[in-house]
């Protein structure tokens, strides 16, 4: 016959009583397994397996003097760029002994405010925030910066703190230089004015063209929507339909804009590519850019380095118990493919 079922264990007190392991030893183990002797670790882990016990991580974190939880705020998890950043930050944080809580604002200022409030209600070591940008509520992040270490990634906020992002002047300048050397001067297909990246890239394009003695030409999209592909497709379709001059080369503010332009060109019967009727280039090196038809010439943001430096900056703030005030700009690299 089988022996009696082990007692039901729900709390740490239950687990301590069932396993015969003192509560202080258990607390030390769950805060830092290396803080107890090897023999004690083996005994605790065997007991966890036997009784099927798993601690309440939220309760443990709340009771810690130094919490091991980080918050992340992103504008969208359907955008591969942001999803890649989150994936890398989560992996690196886990290696450093931290787990993450991710809040997706979905391009909505109201949801962003809820996301920030939710993270502020928890006991966190710090937060890596990618703000919506210009549509964020005024002063949204200022209280958070006053309460815990915060690093702003990719998009700036009106709050003081560390910022880590791509050097848009360098990346756009790199692409403008290549396009001018390899063919007709590029027009610039703008992105919605959702954050400072939109303005910085537009201004960088204008400056790069003027520095090289070329006349800037900007195709504007007067909206603050995050549905970049649809917006670009609709505007490019209109331009192709009306026959308005757009030039023989288009530099798009990001790859998602480029996808919309390329789709509209294909529908309009416009040949795309380096040796065809219209050259198109982008920015970001979206995971699908190499599979576009033709494959998209772009500049690649260093996602791994962006994630690494933002997390390192946050960990420095956690160690110091204060927010740092610094700016780290990361250079991009040119990816030459068939579209331009």
UniProtKB/TrEMBL annotation:
GO molecular function: DNA-binding transcription factor activity; transcription cis-regulatory region binding
Pfam families: LacI, Peripla_BP_1
TM regions (residue ranges): none
Domain HTH lacI-type: 10-64
Keywords, comma-separated and alphabetical: DNA-binding, Transcription, Transcription regulation
Name of the protein in its database record: LacI family transcriptional regulator
Taxon lineage: Bacteria, Pseudomonadati, Pseudomonadota, Alphaproteobacteria, Hyphomicrobiales
């Amino acid at each position: 016959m089988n022996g009696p079922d082990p007692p039901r264990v729900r709390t740490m007190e239950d687990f301590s009583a069932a396993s015969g392991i003192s509560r202080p030893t258990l607390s030390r183990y769950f805060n830092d397994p290396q803080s107890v002797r090897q023999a004690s670790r083996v005994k605790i882990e065997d007991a966890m397996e036997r009784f099927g016990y798993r601690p309440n991580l939220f309760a443990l974190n709340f009771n810690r003097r130094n919490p091991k939880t980080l918050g992340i705020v992103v504008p969208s998890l359907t955008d591969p760029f942001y999803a890649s950043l989150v994936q890398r930050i989560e992996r690196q944080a886990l290696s450093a002994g931290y787990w993450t809580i991710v809040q997706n604002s979905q391009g909505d200022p109201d949801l962003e405010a809820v996301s920030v409030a939710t993270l502020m209600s928890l006991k966190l070591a710090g937060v890596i925030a990618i703000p919506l940008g210009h549509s964020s509520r005024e002063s949204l992040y200022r209280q958070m910066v006053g309460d815990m270490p915060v690093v702003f990634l990719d998009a700036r906020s009106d709050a003081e703190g560390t910022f880590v992002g791509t050097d848009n002047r360098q990346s756009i300048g790199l692409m403008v230089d290549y396009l001018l050397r390899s063919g007709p001067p590029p027009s610039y297909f703008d992105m919605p004015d959702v954050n400072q990246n939109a303005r910085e890239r537009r201004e960088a394009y204008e400056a790069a063209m003027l520095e090289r003695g070329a006349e800037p030409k900007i195709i504007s999209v007067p909206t603050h929507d995050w549905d970049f592909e649809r917006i670009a497709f609709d505007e490019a379709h209109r331009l192709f339909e009306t026959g308005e001059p757009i030039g023989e080369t288009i530099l798009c503010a990001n790859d998602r804009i480029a996808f919309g332009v390329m789709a509209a060109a294909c529908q309009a019967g416009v040949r795309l590519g380096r040796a065809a009727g219209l050259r198109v280039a982008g920015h970001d090196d979206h995971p699908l850019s190499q599979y576009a038809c033709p494959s998209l010439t772009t500049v690649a943001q260093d996602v791994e380095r962006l994630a690494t430096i933002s997390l390192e900056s946050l960990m420095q703030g956690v160690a110091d118990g204060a927010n740092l005030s610094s700016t780290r700009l990361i250079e991009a690299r040119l990816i030459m493919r068939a579209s331009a």
